[in-house]
Amino acid sequence: MLLLVFLSCFAVVYAGGGNFGDSCSISDNRLQIGTYQFYSDCNSVTYCAPNNTCAHRGCRKDDFPFGYPQDSDSIPPKCRRGQFCPDEMDVCQEVLSVGSACQMNRDDQCEGPPNFKELEDTTIRGLNVNGSICLNNVCMWANVTEGEGCVVQNTAYIGYTASGEFIDIVSRGNCRVGLYCDAQSLKCFQEKALDEICDADKECSTWNCLASGVCGTDLAFDHRVSSWVYAVVVIGILGGMFGTLVGLFFLHRKQRERERARRLQYWREQNTFHQNLSQMREAARASIMSLPANNSDESHMPMVQSTGHGSSGLRHHFEDDNNMEDYDDSIVNMQQLVEVRQSRDDGRY
Ligand SMILES: *[C@@H]1O[C@H](CO)[C@@H](O)[C@H](O)[C@H]1NC(C)=O
Ligand SMILES: *[C@@H]1O[C@H](CO)[C@@H](O)[C@H](O)[C@H]1NC(C)=O
Ligand SMILES: *[C@@H]1O[C@H](CO)[C@@H](O)[C@H](O)[C@H]1NC(C)=O
């Protein structure tokens, strides 16, 4: 039945290609085989007029009709209450009284009964429109009570799947809502509840007769999930959030500790370096102070003496220190200067 609703919505979508003013043939108007979509030679914004040319449409059935741009000002109007727009969409017409000819599945073309509030179908199954139904192209009211004679219309639709075509038979009747028209006895029967034996979807109040021959759950509404699913989802979301937070916390703590250890090591190195530098400066100052005031030939002393290894107590001191590798050239220069002075002192004294 959803298929019917779908089809009635898009009945004119796949129209012929005729543009406004092109010639067409009214005798080509038809319902497509298997889908029962309305077809004409004209395109989706025109209809085939009686003079066999494509003319602009005069009404629409849909709020958003196919084929028109969204901001188009040539969209034809919808028909007011008490009127309908036929499949051709040429012009609005007054609803038809009981017994009149109507177009296939266009229940809305038929005038509603006086007790339409009681008879109308409020489900989404499309059993009738406003209490009226178009069966075998005749307007009637869906007012037949249980056990009374009814009219039935079986329509075979062609469905398409990846593996090929299949036939879907839709059976409609003029029984009241809650009853179905049995195709053999042509009498109205009460719809069957869940797990009762059935032959067709229309017999089940859930609109779903399983292949096993019993009424199954309503596929259109079976979207409820039990509360434990919500609980699992909530736990999953919270667990994911806090798991991420805790994971990041430990990851960053490890990084922070590594960083702190590096800084501590750097501070120790710098401290050692600073102390060594102070000691060197002291030693240098002491050796400079101990020089005689008159040593103008100082620059002529050969530098070769400064390369003597192991002679300097300072050098031993530095070599014992593992952090010496990092010291820069200025330290080495300072050290050489001290050695020069000391070796010169040695030579002098
Ligand atoms: C055909 O009929 C339509 C609608 O009645 C009209 O708008 C159009 O002008 C006519 N075309 C010709 C060629 O007569
Ligand atoms: C339903 O049918 C009644 C009786 O014909 C009519 O007065 C009413 O306007 C209709 N309602 C709709 C929504 O078409
Ligand atoms: C039921 O509907 C039919 C038209 O389909 C009408 O002729 C008949 O009078 C209605 N019966 C009742 C009891 O309303």
Offer a few descriptive terms.
349 residues; 4 domains; two-stranded antiparallel sheet; alpha+beta; binds 2-acetamido-2-deoxy-beta-D-glucopyranose; 5 helices; two-stranded antiparallel ribbon
Structure description:
The protein has 349 residues and is α+β, with helices and mostly antiparallel strands. The chain folds into 4 domains: 1-93, no CATH class; 95-178, no CATH class; 191-234, no CATH class; 260-346. It is 30% helix and 14% strand. The strands form 6 sheets. The protein has a two-stranded antiparallel sheet with strand order 1-2. It has a two-stranded antiparallel sheet with strand order 3-4. The chain has a two-stranded antiparallel sheet with strand order 5-6. The N and C termini lie far apart (121 Å). The relative contact order is 0.06. It binds 2-acetamido-2-deoxy-beta-D-glucopyranose (3 copies). One 2-acetamido-2-deoxy-beta-D-glucopyranose binds next to loops. Keywords: Membrane, Signal, Transmembrane, Transmembrane helix. The chain crosses the membrane at residues 228-251. Residues 1-15 form the signal peptide.
Number of strands: 12
Give the CA-CA distance, first to last residue: 121 Å
How would you classify the quaternary structure? single chain
Shape: elongated
Low-confidence stretches: 1-13, 298-327
What is the count of DSSP helices, taking H or I runs of 4+ residues?
5
* Small molecules bound in the structure, each named once: 2-acetamido-2-deoxy-beta-D-glucopyranose
N-to-C SSE series? HEEEEEEHEEEEEEHHH
Mean pLDDT across the residues is 84
Number of domains: 4
Radius of gyration, in angstroms, nearest whole number: 49 Å
Strand content: 5-15%
**Which secondary-structure class do the elements indicate?**
alpha+beta
Provide the spatial order of strands within the biggest beta sheet: 1-2
How is the biggest beta sheet arranged? 2 strands, antiparallel
